[in-house]
Amino acid sequence: TPDSRPDRPGALRVAIVLAGLANDSGFHQIGADGVRKFQQDGEIELQIRESVINPVDAEPVFRQYAAEGYDLVIGWGFSYADAIFRTAKEFPDAHFLTTGGADVAQKATANVATWTYAAEEMGFLLGYIAGQSKLSPVAVVEGEKQPFVQAQWFGFSQGLRLANPAAAEMPPIYTGSFEDAEKANQATATRIREGARLIAANAEGYAPGVASAAKTAGVATVGLASTTSEAAREVNIGRVRVDLVPLMRGVLDRLKSKSFAGQALKSTLANRSLVPSDINKVATAPDVPGDLDSRVDDLVSRLAAGKLAVEPWTPGR
Amino acid sequence: MVTACVVLGMALLVAFAGSDVPVVLAGWWRGAFGTPYNAVQTLSYATPLVLVALGVSVALRAGMVMVGAEGQMIVGAVFATVVLHGVGPVHSLLALPLGALAGMAGGGLWSLLSGVLLLRWRVNEILSALLADYLAIELLAYLLRTALRDPGGAATPQSAPLFEEALIPRLPVPGRLHVAALVVLGIVLVALWWHHSRIAFIVDVHGQRPWLAARLGVSPASIVLSTTAVSGAAAGLAGWMQLAGVDGRLHPGISAGIGFSGLVVAVLGRNHPVGIVVAAIAFASLTTGASGVQIATGTIPASIGTVAQAVLLLAVSVAVVLTRRNVAVRRAQRKDDRAVA
Amino acid sequence: MTVLSLDFWVLVLAGALASATPIVLAGLGETVLQRAGQFNLGIEGIMICGALAGVLGSAAAGPFAGAGFGVLAGVLLGFVFALGCLAGIDVVLVGVALTMLGVGVSTFVFQSWVPSGRTNLSVPTLPAMSVPGLSQLPGIGPLFSSIGVLTYAAGALAVLTWWVLRWTRFGLRIRAVGDSPDVAAVRGVPVSRYRAVAALIAGGFAGLAGAALSLSAIGSFSPGMSGGRGFIALAVVVVARRAPLGVLAGALLFAVPDSLGLLGQTRDTGLPVEALHALPYLVTFVVVCFESRHRMRLRQDTAI
Amino acid sequence: MDTRSMTTSPVVALRAVSKRFATVQALGNVDLVLRPGEVHVLLGENGAGKSTATKILAGLETPDEGEVVVDGEPVALRARADSIRRGVGLVAQAGSLAGELTLVENLLLSHSSWLARRRAAADSLRRAADAAGITLELDVPAHALGVAQRQLGELAIALAQGARVLLLDEPTSSLGPHEVGGLFARLRRLAESGVAILFITHRLAEIRQVADVATVLSHGTVSLHGNVSETDDAALLRAMTGELPSRTPDRPKRTVGPVLLRLDEVTASGREHVPLREVSIEVRSGEILGVLGVAGNGQRTLADVAAGVLRPSRGSVRTTGDVAYVPEARSEGLLPHMPAKRSAVLRRLTEPRFARFGVLDDRATGRFAKELFDRHDVRPRDPEVPTGLLSGGNQQKLLVGRELDGAPQVAVLHGPTQGLDVRATDAVRAEIQRAAGEGAAVLLVSSDVDEVRGLADRLIVLFDGRVADQFDAADFDATRVGRAMAGLST
Ligand SMILES: Nc1ncnc2c1ncn2[C@@H]1O[C@H](COP(=O)(O)OP(=O)(O)OP(=O)(O)O)[C@@H](O)[C@H]1O
Ligand SMILES: Nc1ncnc2c1ncn2[C@@H]1O[C@H](COP(=O)(O)OP(=O)(O)OP(=O)(O)O)[C@@H](O)[C@H]1O
Ligand SMILES: [Mg+2]
Ligand SMILES: [Mg+2]
């Protein structure tokens, strides 16, 4: 259950509002998992509110939690920012965390921390892992054509080229829905029939469709979660996950020490909040090197040292 | 019996999730009406529903089922965004009517697509409106990715925020109820007049026997076009209200299912303006109450909130049916008594 | 391979066949229901429950049992629909409530079954078969090399539905009930019972459509997987003018441009992706307009 | 004939049945006994309760008091199916054909086999129709048939079903003499073979041709019961209305004015199977043009076109002034689900007195309706009753009254007296005379040849959508008309 009594009195009360389901293996699960850990440790009292799809619907929810005296209200959805900032103005004593694109980073206020992630870097690392498999051509299957997604696949191409300059890339197919597994299945099957040897996708609602088509054809995938489906376990090389825990650790600490103020958080490779995860040795990608972990570490340190840069995506590209 | 069955099923589900019905109901009440803010919030949800439903009811009386409000809201909001961004910051006395007119024009024009095709080639209006909804969604997605994109660079598609003067001022109440809610109230009064007007009766007649209406000098073309345009304009106006009163900028969720719910509200309110207002508040309370349920129980996942909404909707509908039956019986009895006397 | 090449179109058509299947199935049920004078806005909710029931059934007893489970779940929700209508609630309201109910229940069961951190179920899928003879044809052979059993079933059920509506007393009675319930009652047809049966049939078909979605190729459930297909099915029934064989045509009319919109992205068309996504709606729109116009020309006179 | 009613035991009967609708006591303590081999005619004014009695026998309504007896046993008929199972066939007054289905398919609706064997059903239907002297179109959906053809079709279906009790609620109201003749012969034969027949009509002349026993209802109670051979028309009429109706006034002299209705080479295909083909007619002010023809030869399309409800595909229609229209199917001119006052006010709705500040004045419409009901004897005089719940005849009175009130310049009347009782029929005919006298151009379409002959100045005969013959009323010649109606004239 998403809620349990605090083990310790005086535990922080945290509410997280998700635009989707907490067990979607994707974006919303990142948010939920990021706070659930602290709940399990008894450090916070947690309430999770799922599937508040529209920002219009989310605002009263934020407000309700703020009015109920929650210490931290997290809006975990990309279009929540306006609603969070509006609510935060009404509740100057409450604390909020909002998510958004690059734009929110500059908007953090005294009681609103912002979070975003380096989509290009996430894609870059994913592309790097994909390239390590030496599989080619690579095809992207994705849901909606949205800025954060476009940025990710822009980074992906760079990572792929770095790891495997010979890799051919097919243009992405956007099915038009992050949920529609059947269309993703059809798009994947088509790409495979056209020769794709590796399918790149994200761990969203449509992911089971990608996994099953890949499994049927004996083709590898990258970007899916191993919880996506059992098929995904058998074909997916790995993915890049947002690990919210380190950043959340800091937020909670500052809340406790009453020094919470306007942080702009960003998950990056350098701060180890974007991490490779679910790395599998799968039969469909025999050439993935055994020392993938250390190669990734190496890549991350080169990035951190500034020896390597990911070109940022700009809208309208 | 249906209610019994459904309530039983609901109770089972809730029990399954580890909570009990009174707590859920109390939570729903608290979420929907328990605090001034929540009550205002419910009203604020109800506002666009009322507007859309009033429009839909006009078309329903002419015998057309309007499922196009969703798309009309979108196109209305797009028009308003384009116009407002186009003129740039102007005084709110200009910006507000301009936005409203643009919204109505957008919604009205989009609805005329169905109206004209129905008249010209008898294209089923449910079908054309449904398809037009999807087209509007794709159009919005395209514009938000290209011409109307927020230059500030957001992670999700959205337009730049409207300038300050274009935003509808809020009423001095807790919660986000804006001044345009008063406009809607005015529209309800007009609708009340219209509902009992002679022309509305002629529209009814057209819905059942077109030739009789035609003989009164009201041509099918004028009825079909005017009723679709009115329903579209109402939806477009609602689109502007969401844009300038609630969201402050255009984004893909601008219509948020309101167009679809508006049809439900019109049916639930049986086309009567007062019925529509009551139905809209009841329907809005389904959404606002869901938060209360969650907070009250703490354990119930959102999906159960959706189930609770369905059950409440069925329960309210059954209540409406029973009340109507009672009223009819009582009326007959009264007449009987008079006849005996 | 260009947009004009045969291979490309084979791919498009193969995709269309698969994606038309659930729409045909749901549309057939809706056809029966509409012939009985009602319509169900809740197909979407039934479909998603059918998809989940299909997965659970397949996990327990294999894919064919899964399809059966899907039907069963659909019939159950069809029963709720029938009850709601019998209670005198407007069909629009019952349909909307049913959509909410279906979405809520399926999500709830799914979350209970597969909580956060647990791996989603993968279950055996229904087999696909090739059409003997046709699959050996050069060029278009691949189109027939692997067609799901439910695609065959959808075709067969369309013919069966047509046959039942036309050649059985049951079918005639359903049509009479839809045509005019008062008249049907005078002819001795128990109207409510026939409507209820039609609702169960429609529910069963929608449930099977859901199972087709989860069991034809994917073998897993995800909460949003019905993706608005219930509403498309409704539209297709209108396009088909409530004729079972018309539903086949209507579903393909939608599915082919839909598939084309997906695969068109792999070619350099120069069109924005939204235009490709809009393709099926646009094509359906245009075809319906022409068809209506043609129909009107056939009967030259216009009633006022 | 007389002894038979003594000896045979009843198949079905109503015993002391009462039935009340909200404000109306439709039946009070009614006994009605149907015996095999007997044609039992049920008479009464519009709204007397005839249809209600029939519906109770058919299981469509349940009595408040009293019981239905079948084969000597009291039974509870809960649905139409119960009484079908007991062999009770019905031709309902409002029509009971599913419009989307053909006649054959309508027959199959209550067949015992679960398979729709169209060929066999068509054969049995055709046999039944032939035996009754009826010609039918079996392969078109019922909605494409005119009312008369639907009535014939329903009769044929009832006959083909081989019921042992036949309830016929005004089966002849829109049939011509030719069809009625054939039908009666068939009914007599059926009676002789042991079928019990209940027959409702307003045409007294028909009674003696076919009926053995008569029951008269007046305001829901039995006012006369006896063998037809032992009663005379005057007694029946007295029992129905309590008085003798006045005679139809003789045709007054009218002054004929300018052409107010003109059809030029009109070709049109309406809902009827037979389209209208190149029809040209002129009707002048003060003139009544009668239209005759076997049902289904384009009459309905002609009326629709003349009234401006249907736009012709070729040719032109010109009317001058106000057009009154009484369509063949009365419900097409009414709003069945709305209060009767709404149906009543339809023609005058735009007058200022019916609205205040644009709001429909319900009291004014109520008053108007009440006056209209008084003038045209629409019963009950309750403007709030939903139109569709008025008895068939009263709906017809409302419709005709509404249309002919207020001196229309053109009147298109299709079967204006169908379903009306003797008195109301006379009243409507007088009303038509009056309208023409006041200068209306009247197009009168009717299956009742005598009615047309009695009222019209000129006649045309339609066959297969064309004008087969036309002549002045003075030249009326039954053989010539018969030939034209059969398509034999050149
Ligand atoms: N099967 C039938 N047999 C005989 N008459 C019929 C039949 N069906 C309809 N009618 C008559 O035809 C007329 C028009 O019927 P129709 O069913 O078109 O009405 P409608 O427009 O559907 O009415 P409503 O809107 O009240 O349902 C009515 O007078 C009715 O009595
Ligand atoms: N369902 C109903 N609800 C209310 N009143 C009804 C209903 N059915 C019939 N009535 C009323 O009952 C009375 C008897 O009607 P019924 O139809 O039996 O008359 P009828 O003798 O058949 O007349 P007609 O010759 O005009 O057909 C009428 O006043 C009618 O308005
Ligand atoms: Mg009807
Ligand atoms: Mg009657």
TrEMBL record, chain B:
Transmembrane in keyword set: yes
TM region positions: 42-62, 74-94, 100-119, 126-144, 177-195, 216-238, 250-269, 276-296, 302-322
Single Gene Ontology MF annotation: transmembrane transporter activity
Name of the protein in its database record: ABC transporter permease
Source organism, top-level taxon: Bacteria
InterPro entries for this protein: ABC_transp_permease (IPR001851)
Keywords attached to this entry: Cell membrane, Membrane, Transmembrane, Transmembrane helix
Gene Ontology cellular-component terms listed: plasma membrane
Main subcellular localisation: membrane
Name of one Pfam family that matches: BPD_transp_2
Automatic annotation (TrEMBL), chain C:
Mode of membrane association: Multi-pass membrane protein
InterPro entries per the UniProt record, alphabetical: ABC_transp_permease
GO CC, alphabetical: plasma membrane
Ranges annotated as spanning the membrane: 6-29, 41-61, 67-86, 93-114, 143-165, 196-215, 271-290
Major subcellular location class: membrane
Keywords of this entry: Cell membrane, Membrane, Transmembrane, Transmembrane helix
Compartment list: Cell membrane
One Gene Ontology MF term: transmembrane transporter activity
Protein name: ABC transporter permease
Organism name: Kibdelosporangium phytohabitans
TrEMBL record, chain D:
One example GO MF annotation: ATP hydrolysis activity
Domain named ABC transporter: residues: 12-244, 261-489
Keyword rRNA-binding: no
Keywords from the UniProt entry: ATP-binding, Nucleotide-binding, Repeat, Transport
Entry annotated with the keyword Disulfide bond: no
Superkingdom to which the source organism belongs: Bacteria
Protein name as it appears in the record: ABC transporter domain-containing protein
Source species of the chain: Kibdelosporangium phytohabitans
